Every structure is written in structure tokens, then in C-alpha cells.
Amino acid sequence: MNTQIEKAKRQLREIATMLAEMESIGAEEKSASVNDQPIRCIAKYGQLYDMATQKRIVFIENSICELSCTNFKYPAEEEISCKTVDELAKEVTAKNGGYRKIFDRGKVLYFYLMQPQNEEKDKELKKEHRRYTFKCVLLEDLYVKQTEKKNGHGYKFYECHCKTVESNAAYFESTSGKSLAELFRKTSILYNEDYTSANALVTDYYHVDKYFGDNNKLKSACDRLFEN
Fold first, then answer.
1. Residues 149-168 pLDDT 10s
2. Closest CA to 177 of 193, 204, 195, 157
3. Distance of CA 39 to the CA centre of its chain
4. Which string of b and e fits 95-132 if b means at least 16 CB within 10 Å?
5. Do 139 and 82 form a contact (C-beta atoms < 8 A)?
6. What is the pLDDT of residues 38-90, one digit of tens each?
7. Which residues contact 46 (CB under 8 A, 6 or more apart)?
8. Fewest CB atoms within 10 A around its CB: which of 17, 44, 96, 166?
9. Virtual CA dihedral for 35, 37, 43, 44, nearest 10 degrees?
């Protein structure tokens, strides 16, 4: 008798689980059917707005959409006007600000951004698997000077044109800047707007090798430069 009761309870639990799963699937399908409806939108201020609700459309990472656009263009590569080695050296010398050259033009540096987390499963990925890594090239010689702070010293970089040339991010788009800080800021806006940039971040986010680590940080290279 007890065996039959236990068997009946087990069957009821299985039925309850099945019903819960069916309800969950139905809710997902209902939600998807709403999101799958065509949205008539307009491009304003560099964003897309739903013309019916006048609300800005926020795309979920990896969402797929189809666009039928009346007028569009692909971004043109930014024209960069660089100073010659001699021109830049004379300009820096004239500043008399204690700048030292740390790298020649053509030097490759690396930095990374974390991928946006929009799904619970993303949190299970290891940190290194959620990185967008970027390879950038200096288009001018890079100069840096040491600055004094309350808790030690920091570094200030002279303007140096640079650009990203390679990344593991899908649909990579090259960015350029007049400084390392500007390049990081423009890249972060394009790939993950949660990141911001300031000069204080340059020495921590840029690395001299694609194998990220404290010894490879730009700050460590600056420390070694000013040890002498």
C-alpha cells in the first residue's frame, strides 16, 4: 500500500514539474512574440527611437534585428594628421615640461574592455573569457612625464596619435585618437559604454604585451623609465 502511495506522489510531482515547464515556455513564447513585432524607428542623436512611443530603443547584447532604412552610410575611416619625429621632438622640448620619450612610433600596445553582462549565464564565464582585447599602434612617438601626487607620483602623457588595428571582438571597427586616453574612451563608448576613461586609467589599462599582467602594465614601463 505504501509503495503505491509513494508511486502516486512521485507521478504527481512529475506532472507538477511538467506543468511548470510548459507554463514557463508559454511565457517565453508570449514575450518573444511581443518583441518580434516590427518596430518603426527613427535615427536621432546617434540613437534609434520608436516612432510610436518616442522611446529610445536599447538593444540587448547579441539580439538580432532586420533594418529597412531610407538613408544610411557606413562610418568612414578618420583622417589622421601626424607630426614628423623631428616636429614632435621640437614641440615637446619647447614645452620644457620634463617629458621623456618612452616609445617610438610603431610601438604596439594592448588594452581590454569587459563584455557587457546581459544574461545570467555570462556571469559563469571566467574573466579572461569575457574580455574584448584590442591591439593598438602608436602613430607618433610617445612622451611621458612624472607628476607628483599626495600618495606618491603619477604620469602624464603628451598627445600621441594612435589607433586600434585588431581585436577579438566580433564586427571589429577601428578607432583612433589624439591620445591614449581618447583612444580608450572612444573604443569603450563603441563597445561597452559602462567604461569611462581618464588619464589616471591609461597606465593601468594599457599593457606592453598581449599577456595582461601587472608587470606588463604601461605603469610598470613608466616606472622603469624614471628609475634612472
1. 777 788 999 999 999 999 99
2. 157
3. 28
4. eeeebeebbebebebbbbbebbeeeeeeeeeeeeeebb
5. yes
6. 788 888 877 888 888 888 888 777 778 777 777 777 777 778 889 999 999 99
7. none
8. 96
9. -60
